[in-house]
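hey can u check if this looks right to u? its 188 residues, i copy pasted from the old doc so theres a chance i mangled smth
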Amino acid sequence: MSDIRIARDPDTSPDVLEQLATHNRSSVRRSVAGNPTTPAPTLDALVRDVSWRVRLAAAANPNTSIAGLTTLAADTSEAVRTRVARNPNAPVAMLMTLGGDERWQVRARVARNRNAPAAVLTVLASDEKWYVRRTVAKHPNTPRKVLTALADDMHRDVRIAALRALTQHTRRPIGNIQIIRERRWPPF
């Protein structure tokens, strides 16, 4: 069996995974980082790997410790930070920090994290990128007050998403969604 297959196998012992985590081939280390049974101490070593692909796999692993995720949240790779924002174990404080990331793709992924609290979503609701605002409008934790404000957003897709979310919150139709199609923005 190849080293990659052994590294991917969930039945591989923690001792073997720890040994493979120092393999000279990054593809093997990436497979160890992506293995759902890799122990947290082994993953903590892999979060500092020279290969961004290995760090990306570690960021997605649910066994990566909070300390490991914290290291990855400050990574130079946008893809790694995005994957951390997607991790269901990312703590609220980390989501708050990533919500202020310079890259809109990271901020959008924070807005999609099912654990994103209302405070993070409220901040992201005023993001400069319409895609981030639309993602906030689609999140089930977005407060009604924020959805109401997004229903009057300058971008049509944001307005539609907010009105749909408001309709789902109330379980009855609100207003006439047709006005979205007729409204011009900005209103001159």
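The chain has two domains: 1-90, 117-188.
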